[in-house]
Every structure is written in structure tokens, then in C-alpha cells.
Amino acid sequence: MQKKITWIWIAFLPLLSLAQSKQPNFFSVTVSGGITGAGISTTKKLQPANASYNVRFNFGAHAWYNYALGNDWDLQLGMGYVDAGFRRQQKNIQYLDPTYPGIGSGMIIDKTNTRKDINYDYRFHYLQVPVLFNYKVAKSKDFKSNYMLTGGINVDVLLKHRLTARLENFTVDGEKKYQFDSTGMKANVITASLSIGARLEHKLDKSTTLIIHPVFNYYPLSVTNSDIKINPYTLMVHAGVVINIASKKQ
After folding, report:
1. pLDDT score recorded for residue 154
2. How many other CB atoms sit within 10 Å of the CB of residue 186?
3. Lowest mean pLDDT, pick from 45-49, 57-61, 112-116, 144-148
4. Which residue from 77, 104, 117, 227 could staple onto 44, CB 3.0 to 4.6 Å apart?
């Protein structure tokens, strides 16, 4: 997966050198962070059965091209990487309680009274191609800031899916972290997600514009093709700058 991400960023590098002023059309690059979780429907229990669901932190990075459709609308096309998924937590594990298969013998054989927890992070890594529309709802009195609403659809191409188990306050066979090359489910190679959010563009000076772009994504179709249906969601804040290279040289 690292090689694939490296090639994605190699493809992005020319966009950095092409970054133009904010109006009317421009390139930008953003990094993002937030939380991800999932709605799960299944007739088959995930192992271990005595674990609860939760959200976890995630991250991403995108290159964008914005094309003005008029005074108030613009089309925002992108390509980037996003990590979606969820966390399962096994708390206060006791002697002989089962763990995920592949962690030691598959059960706790430590008889100490130390509290034992395991976080299972399910990760679906995607190459994401967003198609978004932005609508300007307001502008600051000094004309430096634009406030927008945004929405659209994303095509998500699976790069890899994996499971990471992190042991808290104890080890198994001397290990505190177990990495599995699969989530244990059959993941769909191509899926789609819907986006809704807001966007702030703030001009810092004549050559630099700050972009803050919080977006909520939801996958209405299950990202798995199995008895376990997974519908991830993400809430992420994208941040970046647009640099007018011509203004910098003046």
C-alpha cells in the first residue's frame, strides 16, 4: 500500500507547482484528519463476540481542482487517499476470555489482576475521487473570506483493508500490537460515498488563501460483500492553502 500512496503523491507533485490564485479556477492540496465509524448489520458475530463498537481517528490527503460555474457556484474535483472504518473495543478482559484468532492462543492465559483491554481497528484504505459542488452563502465585509456549503459524491477504489489489534496494559508472546493483512471480510474493490459539509476560503495576503473544509462522508452501500454489512462514515476537516506563485515573485 505504501508504494501505491507514493505513486499517488508523485502524481500530485505537479499540481503543487501549478497552484494559481483563487479566482476563477485553481488547484489546491489539502491534508485532513477526523474520526470514522460504521453502521454494521450482520447475522454473524464478529470475533471476539464480547467487544463493543466505537469510532477512531483517521486521516487523508487530496489534490483538488476548482472550476467556477458562476458567481456563487463552483465545481470541485479531487483525487486522494482516505482511511475509513471503525474500532471494536474489548475491555477488562479476564482469564480465559477469547480474543481475536491469531493473537497468541486465541484466549487470555495471563492470570494477573492487571486490567487488560484490546482495541481492534478495522481499516479500509481508499483512493478517492470526489466530485463536489460548492455554493457561496456569504462573504465577509472585508471581502477576504468566502463561506460555502458543499455536497457531492465520491468514487472510492480499495487499496487495501486490514485489521490492527493494540493491547493495552499487557502483552501476548511479548507483543503489544498485532497486524493482520485483512479485516477477515471480503471487501468490494469499488464503492461510493456521499459528502456534505461546509467550506471557508480566507485570503491571508495577496498571494495566499487558506482553505478549511469540514466534510461528512457516508457510504450508503456496504463496503463488504459478505454476511457482515459495513457502512462506514467519516467526519474530517480538510486544510490547505492556495499559493499564487506569480504574486510571490512580484
Report:
1. 98
2. 12
3. 45-49
4. 227
CA distances in angstroms from 31 to 60, 82, 187, 241, listed in the order given: 6, 10, 26, 10
Would you report the helix, strand and coil content of the chain in percent, each value rounded to 5?
Answer: 10, 60, 30
Using the Cα atoms of residue 108, residue 111, residue 112 and residue 113 in order, give the sign of their dihedral: positive
Cell of 246: 506569480
Task: Report the distance separating Cα 155 and Cα 158, nearest Å.
Answer: 10
Strand partners, 196: 151, 216
d(CA 235, CA 216) in angstroms, rounded, equals: 4
Contact 165, 119 (CB under 8 A): yes
What residues form DSSP beta bridges with 155?
Answer: 129, 192
Q: Cα(27)–Cα(201) distance, rounded to whole angstroms?
A: 13
Q: How confident is the model at residue 106 (pLDDT cuts 50, 70, 90)?
A: confident
Q: What is the pLDDT of residues 158-194, one digit of tens each?
A: 999 999 999 999 999 989 999 999 998 999 999 999 9
In the chain, the N- to C-terminal Cα span, in Å, equals 41
Task: Give the separation between CA 56 and CA 173, rounded to whole angstroms.
Answer: 26
Nearest to 58 by CA among 42, 41, 38: 38
> In this structure, what are the phi and psi dihedrals at residue 170, rounded to the nearest 5 degrees?
-160, 170
What pTM does this model have?
Answer: 0.84
Amino acid identity at 30: T
DSSP state of 57: E
Bridge-based pairing of strands 177-180 and 73-90 is: unpaired
